[in-house]
Amino acid sequence: xxxxxxxxxxxxxxxxxxxxxxxxxxxxxxxxxxxxxxxxxxxxxxxxxxxxxxxxxxxxxxxxxxxxxxxxxxxxxxxxxxxxxxxxxxxxxxxxxxxxxxxxxxxxxxxxxxxxxxxxxxxxxxxxxxxxxxxxxxxxxxxxxxxxxxxxxxxxxxxxxxxxxxxxxxxxxxxxxxxxxxxxxxxxxxxxxxxxxxxxxxxxxxxxxxxxxxxxxxxxxxxxxx
Length: 226
Description:
Elements: E1 21-34, E2 42-50, E3 76-80, E4 89-90, E5 96-97, H1 99-114, H2 117-121, H3 128-139, E6 144-155, E7 161-166, E8 177-179, E9 200-201
Parallel strand pairs: 3-7, 6-9
Antiparallel strand pairs: 1-2, 1-6, 2-3, 4-5, 6-7, 6-8
């Protein structure tokens, strides 16, 4: 007997990447990297992995240079610790913002959610780069946490929309990351809402000019020019 019960349209396989929404993840690595658009701005990136998937799920390779090597057991994603990069700046009000101070505040919040504040406070570093290397050793690991993953859509060179994941800003007593040990009745975890601009920013696909023939339009300077 044939039945479509339990089937999905398409190949039915789960994607190897995490989508925005409420997820359960562990932090495999924390990196502190300069943004490509501003040499003075840095992102704190959480490299996270969801719980192990069942069935015929095939995760990304742990090492892309080893095609026969291990694969991630769960969906993975790179998540900004904050929606915007960290940078020294002065607000219109005259208030000065210190990049290093804001980065350390973000790590304090993360450590408190992971129950590792004491370990974080034990770190002593001469530079913010050294501090973040130490944070990676303390705050990454096998411990799973509940998260609310926000996203900003962007279009890649092939015309597909991708998600730039981030932890939404804390507000009104709600948090974007929380220990899985917190009881539901005491939870302050945000519930993802795609209609909330603090959770999701939709991208706009580029409009492709229509042609009246099947002959490709001639362009200059596109991605395929040598």
